[in-house]
Design a protein that fits this description.
By secondary structure, the chain is an alpha/beta fold. The chain has 2 domains: about 30-125 and about 225-270, Periplasmic binding protein-like II (D-Maltodextrin-Binding Protein, domain 2, 3-Layer(aba) Sandwich); about 125-215, Periplasmic binding protein-like II (D-Maltodextrin-Binding Protein, domain 2, 3-Layer(aba) Sandwich). The chain is about 40% helix and about 20% strand. A 5-stranded mixed β-sheet has the order 4-1-5-12-6. It is globular, with a radius of gyration of 23 Å.
Length: about 280
């Protein structure tokens, strides 16, 4: 009986070791490996036109989704699923494994680099400020917002939050909302006097709104935004593979034709800034 129990325990131990080994092997697989194995790859983004947003049939639309899908195809991916979430949930969702890539228009910032790995930039995008028609309070910079003591609105986690803080706009004067549509609504409703985000996103958000306009002229913050694709911290191999494809694809006739309808043109191509430098601040 004792011998049988010992043999059973040995068998269980071998099985447990095998299971643990398999689990470790699975978790160690890079996204590139999973693409090679024909597994489904999940992309994560918010409702953030024109960068990334779901279509009427839930298909991934937007310029950054278009680029991501083409790069994944060139890497051999045949199965791609979308996960749409709030902007503020993108990095936590990536870290938790809800999806494999953030394909939204997320700029490279030092604080984000501590939590995700970015590819090289896919664009260089200026900031834009939205104000009421006629710009009645004369707001042409973040400094104007600070000096005139007005309320400023932007998206939670947007680069503009840092821009506002850097020039000394008090926290109580910075309203953070879910995204670009909410920025527009806050200004229309009179809850804020100015709002900011990336130029393409703000231009798309105000559309044909009669009561709003872009502040013109507008003094830019020190640096433009550099959106890129984001991966988990253990995916350096995949980031390198993704960036290698992007090197030849960015600016190609193939790409420019695909993203032109979203407002992306030659003027928005990356300016040569490198991710490693941007992560340093």
């Amino acid at each position: 009986m004792r011998r049988a129990i010992l043999m059973g325990m040995t068998a269980l131990g071998i099985a447990a070791t095998a299971i643990a080994s398999f689990a470790s092997s699975a978790s160690a697989q890079s996204l590139v490996d999973r693409i090679g194995n024909g597994e489904t790859i999940r992309i994560g983004y918010s409702n953030d036109a024109p960068w990334a947003y779901p279509g009427e049939n839930k298909e991934p639309l937007g310029l950054q989704n278009v680029i991501a899908l083409e790069v994944l195809k060139k890497l051999g991916a045949s199965k791609v699923e979308s996960v749409v979430t709030e902007w503020g949930s993108l990095i936590p969702g990536l870290q938790a494994g809800r999806f494999d890539i953030i394909t939204d228009g997320m700029s490279i910032l030092p604080e984000r680099c501590r939590n995700v790995l970015f590819t090289q930039p896919i664009a260089s995008i200026p900031t834009a400020m939205v104000v009421s028609k006629g710009n009645p309070k004369g707001l042409h910079s973040f400094e104007d917002v600070r000096d005139k003591g007005v309320t400023f609105v932007t998206g939670a986690g947007y680069r503009a939050v840092k821009n506002a803080g850097d020039v000394g706009i008090p926290d109580e004067k910075i309203m953070q909302v879910a995204g670009n549509p909410e920025i527009v609504q806050a200004i229309k409703a009179g809850r804020a006097d100015a709002g900011a985000g990336d130029y393409l996103g703000m231009k798309k958000a105000i559309g044909n709104e009669d009561g709003l306009e872009m502040a013109d002229p507008f003094t830019q913050p020190e640096k433009p935004g550099y959106p890129a694709f984001a991966f988990r911290l253990n995916e350096q191999v995949t980031v390198d593979a993704f960036s290698a494809v992007l090197k030849d694809y960015l600016g190609s006739d193939e790409m420019m034709k695909s993203v032109a309808k979203y407002g992306y043109d030659k003027s928005t191509l990356p300016d040569g800034s490198k991710t490693a430098d941007l992560c340093k601040g």
